[in-house]
Design goal:
Elements (H helix, E strand, L loop, with lengths): L3 H37 L1 H4 L27 E7 L2 E23 L4 E6 L6 E2 L4 E5 L2 H29 L5 H27 L1 E3 L4 E3 L9 E2 L4 E18 L11 E6 L5 E9 L9 E8 L11 E18 L4 E3 L2 E8 L2 E12 L3 E6 L6 E3 L12 E7 L1
Parallel strand pairs: 1-19
Antiparallel strand pairs: 1-18, 2-9, 2-13, 3-5, 3-8, 4-7, 5-6, 7-9, 9-12, 10-11, 10-13, 11-12, 13-17, 14-15, 15-16, 16-17
Helix pairs in contact: 3-4
Length: 384
């Protein structure tokens, strides 16, 4: 038998253990919060003495360098001046074959001969493949016999008509039979010609899956034929430059694959500006004598439109794109001023300014993401 004191002691021991556990958890939580505050918020954790976030925050005693009222933002600037600028339009383009066609069969039948050497050049008029035309040839011979018969009948009827033994209507019926048979003969000859598919122009053959004995139907694709000397370069320029493009202009073409540059000449300009993209479609021609460019390739096109001696340009990083246009920060009275601008020709390093700036303006080129209109600035470096 346990005494009353022993029973109270047994009950108290678990309670004491739980109390120590809660105290331990509370201390661990406090220690964790202190660690997080010291690790990630050192400024606020340092208190008001000497810390930029405590009592010594902006305007306080302890915030040494911590955002004193009237502090200036250090920036680098560019002084706007007139420069020589080659008006150049950059665009992307595609290489097209000078002539390209998909070779198809116009009639049904089995391929009886195949003269397609994939990737090899062919001459205009060369037979590429032929279709079994035995039935057409039989119909052709039959029609030739009919024409001979109708021609003899027409000759006899004409003699009888001259002697007035028959009426003109009887003669016309016989003559009509002859003319109809001759027309049907021409149709059969045309169908027979379709059985022998020839190259429509000089070019290079593509790949094919057809073989001798393959049954084809009208519209079945057999191969492709492309003329790749010369090639065409299709590109488009912004509509505002449409009036500056002329037939005969020389454009610089850079192959995306090899990074080599070539010169092509504009030979056609679409009379309409694309209403969707507001660009002017232009087409140039490149001789491609060494097969430098292949149809379907992606190229970069640069078109020079002239040269300006009084162009205003600023560094690319100084221009801020916005929904309504473009702006820059200029320095006036030691403060940053947001100025709306209009841009023209641009490159990787500089952008032409067509409106909004004047010679001598000071444009901020660094730290613009931290600036807002009216902020005081301190010029560290000025570049001309």
């Amino acid at each position: 038998m346990q005494t009353k004191e022993q029973e109270e002691q047994v009950v108290a021991e678990p309670r004491t253990g739980r109390r120590f556990l809660w105290i331990f958890l509370a201390l661990a939580l406090v220690a964790g919060l202190v660690f997080v505050k010291m690790r990630y918020f050192p400024a606020t954790a340092s208190g008001g003495k000497g810390g930029p976030g405590g009592k010594g925050a902006p305007g306080g005693k302890g915030g040494k360098g911590g955002g004193e009222k009237g502090a200036k933002t250090p920036v680098q600037v560019y002084i706007v001046k007139p420069t020589n600028l080659a008006d150049e339009v950059a665009a992307t383009g595609s290489v097209l074959a000078d002539e390209a066609v998909v070779i198809k069969s116009e009639i049904s039948g089995k391929i009886t001969s195949l003269n397609i050497r994939e990737g090899q050049p062919v001459r205009r008029g060369q037979v590429l493949f032929s279709i079994n035309a035995d039935e057409i040839q039989a119909d052709l011979r039959k029609q030739e016999y009919n024409i001979k018969l109708y021609r003899d009948q027409e000759r006899r009827q004409r003699v009888l008509l001259n002697k007035e033994y028959i009426s003109a209507q009887e003669y016309e019926q016989t003559n009509n039979q002859l003319l109809t048979a001759q027309a049907e003969l021409q149709s059969l000859r045309a169908n027979l010609a379709k059985a022998y598919v020839r190259a429509p122009f000089d070019g290079v053959l593509g790949l094919t899956t057809a073989t001798v004995g393959t049954y084809v139907s009208p519209g079945t694709e057999i191969t492709t034929l492309s003329r790749i000397r010369p090639v065409k370069i299709d590109f488009a320029v912004p509509g505002r430059f449409a009036s500056n493009v002329r037939v005969g202009d020389v454009v610089s073409v850079t192959d995306e694959a090899t990074n080599k540059q070539y010169e092509a000449k504009v030979y056609a300009i679409d009379p309409q500006i694309d209403p969707v993209s507001r660009t002017q479609p232009v087409r140039a021609r490149f001789p491609n004598t060494g097969n430098e460019l292949r149809p379907g390739a992606f190229v970069k096109v640069n078109l020079e439109l002239g040269e300006s001696t009084n162009a205003l340009q600023v560094p690319t990083e100084a221009v801020i794109p916005e929904a309504s246009g473009y702006t820059v920060f200029t320095v006036k009275g030691g403060k940053a001023v947001s100025t709306k601008i209009k841009i023209g020709v641009r490159s990787e390093k500089v952008i032409q300014i067509t409106d909004g700036l004047a010679v001598g303006d000071t444009v901020i080129r660094t730290g613009i993401l931290q600036l807002k209109p009216g902020d005081a600035v301190q010029i560290q470096k000025a570049e001309l």
